[in-house]
Amino acid sequence: MLIISNDDIESVLTLDVAFKALERAYLDQARGRAVNRPRSDLYLPGVHDGSIYAFKSMEGGLVESKVVALRLNSDVIRWEDRESRIIKQKVPAAPGKKWVGLIQLFSAETGEPLAIFPDGVVQRIRVAVTSALAAREMARKDASVLAVFGSGWQAGAHIPAFCAVRDIKKVNVFSPAKDNREKFAQQMEQLVGIPVVPVPSSEAAAKDADILVAATNAITPVISATWLRSGVHATCVKDCEFDGETLRRADRIVIHSRNFAPENYIAGCGDQKISAHDPVDFIRGNKSIAVDDASPFWIDSPELKDVIAGSVPGRTSPEEATCFINNIGLGIQFAAVGHAVYLQAKAKGLGKEIPTDWFLESVHP
Amino acid sequence: MLIISNDDIESVLTLDVAFKALERAYLDQARGRAVNRPRSDLYLPGVHDGSIYAFKSMEGGLVESKVVALRLNSDVIRWEDRESRIIKQKVPAAPGKKWVGLIQLFSAETGEPLAIFPDGVVQRIRVAVTSALAAREMARKDASVLAVFGSGWQAGAHIPAFCAVRDIKKVNVFSPAKDNREKFAQQMEQLVGIPVVPVPSSEAAAKDADILVAATNAITPVISATWLRSGVHATCVKDCEFDGETLRRADRIVIHSRNFAPENYIAGCGDQKISAHDPVDFIRGNKSIAVDDASPFWIDSPELKDVIAGSVPGRTSPEEATCFINNIGLGIQFAAVGHAVYLQAKAKGLGKEIPTDWFLESVHP
Lengths: 365, 365
Hints:
Number of strands of chain A: 17
Number of helices of chain A: 10
CATH topology of the largest domain in chain A: Rossmann fold
Oligomer: homodimer
Structural class of chain A: alpha/beta
């Protein structure tokens, strides 16, 4: 079994590899050759003061590639009220101030584990490339100005991914802290070789943009409805970055998955599941708030797989305002990108081999 | 991070350790200090001819112990029609003709992985000890004759576990193959030191029994309603070993969990879940059969945790006929027994340490 590091993954996981792997996975999904076990979040309140332990997992399987991936996160989470937004922080609580997110790849031919590796690099690129695949189908062909809200690691992956699907001439960047956005813009300009302009307000970023990219860790709206002019395409890394008004104004919405919210299992709530994106009110002690969200109105929108497979159009005129809601991760993203990483690492002799036999058994399970 | 083998687990996991760990977990569950993410099964038809790949997973967390366990099985499954019963077989398809079942333990304090180990030994003992805990609360105090249906690895764990909770004087064993039941009876007699008698029919096994134990891999009924006489307690390792008539005849039913069936995700069925214990008809190609089972009539019965915590009685008179339906596994069983195994292995210096840092990351996941 191969243990692969984030550094090794970074060295083999090009945008091109990720685009090919994800496109094929959505095509497989569209024709019933892929399957997802949707994300679930298990919460243990009471272990920490002021933060909470959460174990997140999801799975995806690909028939043609004969692999299943499990992706898990073992997190200590803190919610912070900051500048009128609620920010969700993952506390690096593991030794060396590190995080714990893992992808585990299994062979569907033999059942054996093939590889384990951290999820950070894969996670980042799969979100950005998924949104860029949607933009390839949904943005105007002549879209040339990108507005990016956020200056973190997700934002940084979106800029090159979007530049790969449209001939972007300029990127506007807004994030609340001046230093962050300026440093980020400078780094990005070096990376993509076109002007990346830090701007002092989100309105200024949106003003001349053809594509709006929300890539923040806010769990409150980021994109304003007035920015979704005719011809504009907007995208997000979580549905809460859009407000209802923006989405109602869109001529066309495509979503990542109809399984709109993770299933939350919270110690103290019995074993019942609570469907909600962030059961923050409950967990913060306001137990009277019902967190069992009704399905949002957009939940019956086409899924990305339908657009990638061509069964529904991403855009039918240059005038349409379109939104892609990258509303939740899917296990097949990790199966597809994870398998590509594994094949590349094997081919290049990267990673540490440990005996597969340690993870097998002759006792009937 | 500690890698522990089944041999090491066998050397530390006594019945006593398992009883204590599981009893505490059910008490924790009863008072809201434990949580389960119910079992899901992901199926990939089309990888194998005549068998199917399945990835099964569940999770459980314990607040007091500050651990979460993930238990997964990566199986190639074959259903066989045998002697009017359908038998579910796990094919040992991994290198060396082995199976793949893993328990992974995480710290809820730091998020870090603590241990990975195969699930076979833990799996076996946790099923038997769970049913024995139920029998401790539900069987007549003077129960002395045990009838065991099955001669496999589950049956073999049940006999010592039940002997630990009642003063059993004799065990009757039936399983269809004469050689198997005779060899099994001999082994068990040596193990528990009381007469273990192989009998040629299930009726003969049930005739004078106070406790009926179905521990087979049949997915069709094993226990007949006429055997559930006044005062008898019956138990199973899967609900399908009971038929409806038997359960309707019972004066009192206790179940393991109200989450009665795993959620099945099957490639080719979209991403919708199908609640069913064994979606065998669908997977075998009879796609017109609806496998989305209605909840069974017994699903509102008290759970084991309620009986262990004393909020409902297991038996109120010597005359009652009682049934415990060990209907599905729970993640907290693996958290409780797995954590006990981990602590024992650490204390005794067992297992292989590999660097925890391989499974941590400084890239934000």
